[in-house]
Design a protein that fits this description.
about 140 residues, mainly alpha, 5 helices
């Protein structure tokens, strides 16, 4: 019974993490076109910081903790598909780190990247998420 509750918690945390990971780069697309120090830029700074600190970071931590517990309790850590999934989740966590760095750059008015960069970066979490979901649902190997 506890396994199902932890799995539900994991799914909720992943949904929250992905929502933030998909929205934050979109905010950066708009922020990159706003003049540094302007009202819009300052508003984006607050939005980005709050999204990262209040939603994305806690959701990632819960997703990792619950996911590792599920992998251990379910014996999934022995499955080859799980190893591939873990690699993609590590890549997602790396993307999370890049987003956190870019939030700091924007907060210090040090962004040097164009909006197009963030448009492309916005696709990375989507592609990783597709791979993760396929591995978890289909378990192809």
């Amino acid at each position: 019974m506890l396994y199902d509750w932890i799995k539900a918690l994991h799914v909720l945390a992943v949904i929250s993490w992905m929502a933030g990971m998909l929205y934050l780069p979109r905010l950066m697309v708009y922020h990159a076109t706003a003049p540094a120090g302007g009202e819009a830029s300052e508003t984006f700074k607050v939005m980005e910081r709050r999204l990262l600190k209040a939603i994305i970071n806690p959701a990632m931590i819960v997703a990792w903790l619950a996911g590792l517990w599920i992998a251990y309790e379910g014996g999934w850590y022995l499955a080859p598909w799980f190893h591939a999934k873990l690699a993609l989740v590590l890549a997602m966590s790396g993307m999370h780190g890049f987003l956190a760095r870019w939030v700091r750059d924007f907060a210090q008015d040090k962004n040097v990247r164009p909006a197009r960069f963030y448009r492309v970066a916005n696709e990375i979490p989507t592609l990783l998420m597709i791979g993760i979901v396929i591995l978890v649902v289909v378990k192809p190997f």
